[in-house]
Automatic annotation (TrEMBL):
Record's protein name: Pimeloyl-ACP methyl ester carboxylesterase
Lineage: Bacteria, Pseudomonadati, Pseudomonadota, Alphaproteobacteria, Rhodobacterales
Gene Ontology molecular function, alphabetical: DNA binding; triacylglycerol lipase activity
Residue stretches making up the AB hydrolase-1 domain: 280-484
Domain of life: Bacteria
Amino acid sequence: MAELEISLMGELRVFSEGEEMPLPASRKARALLGFLVATGRPHRRERLCELFWDLPDDPKAALRWSLSKLRKVVDAPDRVCIVSDRERVSFAQNRARVDIHEIQAALRDREGHCGFEELEEMARSLDGVMLDGLDGAGGEGFSAWLTAEREDAQAAWLTVVRLLATHPEATPVSVRKWKRIWQEADPEAAEAHEEEAARPLPPQVPRLPVSRAHAQRPGGVRGARGLRTQRIGFCEGPDRTKIAYATVGEGPPLLKAANWLTHLEFDWAAPIWGRCFAEIARARTLIRYDERGCGLSDWDVDDLSFDAFVEDLELVADKLGLERFPLLGISQGAAVSVEYAVRHPERVSGLILVGGYAAGWRHLASPEKQARREAVRNLTEVGWGTDNPAYRHIFSQTFMPEASAEDLDWFDNFQRQTTSARNAARFQDAFGDIDVRDRLGQVRAPTIVLHSRHDQRIPVEMGRDMARGIPGAEFVPLESRNHVLVDYEPAWQVCLQTVADFLSEHGI
């Protein structure tokens, strides 16, 4: 196979068999290639159109034209790099060597074992602006992604500088050089290293590497980067629906059942998910997946039902070979978790249910409330995908009534990125039909149920009823009005600590 090398550091460059390939004159086409290569995973065509082309243009035609130009650069008779179908486009990572990917893999897999000369070469490669010259080639979403990727590259450069400044093979001259650079770039970490190195240790007490201690502090150089180390994959159900899943962190697994309004890529920036996921991933391997019909999973699906939701959870657990694990269910994910735990008691070591319910609104709501639900459902179908956020704001206000105005605006926009208007309405229908009340008594796993006292979307009594129905379940009320907790309210920290104590108490 003809060898392909791609450099993302500095200006985008592509080499085939050592010969530099001419790139399209279009900055958008070059930015598209850089995005596909850097992310290395499939992207929906609609999402790519949103990232790079304005609505007055013909985004789909522009995307097709750009892909045709890029195929001439990276594809060869024995090498297909750009893979696409009716819904998605991706760049086959195993078809090319990518400079930033090779550096990040080396730092991740053998950080303490890189040679001095190898590290110096990494420092030279990283001493530049990633995808230089492509600022403004796309919309706000592309600019935000590019900023985050450049921060990651800067974090990798700082790691390399630290390793050079402390490398056992470095000469005194080299040590002085790299310590000076480290001090200028990250004085807090450099000074912490000097203080730690000078501090005497009790006998037989190992020293914690300063880099790791620094990374654990909020605002540490590697803190933001850690949120983007997740590994995304896809599995396919019997009906050919592709389900996207992600793993992040190390340690015993914790599987989160999917719930509506998630997106594996965008969740990290969410005030309702990002810090929570990061906290869990400190000590565990957190596994999440997007529900069918939303996020990175297939949107165009025939079956959007409770049984399909449970089968998708089974699919992900089987794909990853999980034998025994605790299960986290939030909102309607709680009912999905209950059903899975009853079907597979030998695999579920514990249930954590947050803001959940056992029966949907069609079973329990009064005629007046059902009429209001139907009205909201119809408004969703006609208004969800418009530029007017008023329709989506209906959900924002009930999900997070105590969130800041800025977070509500973010959530309004986030909703449109997670699913289509048609699916948003179909989800509401599916949630109304849920009923696992007769399954609660069959749960055998240790269970904790947490619920906001003044939840505006799912009343706290529905959480209490779940706890009452599950043998031995513990119920913990949270002082909040939010259905989904935001990370700056006190109840968020109470929830995390309570869950940690539950897992520890049961040895899970």
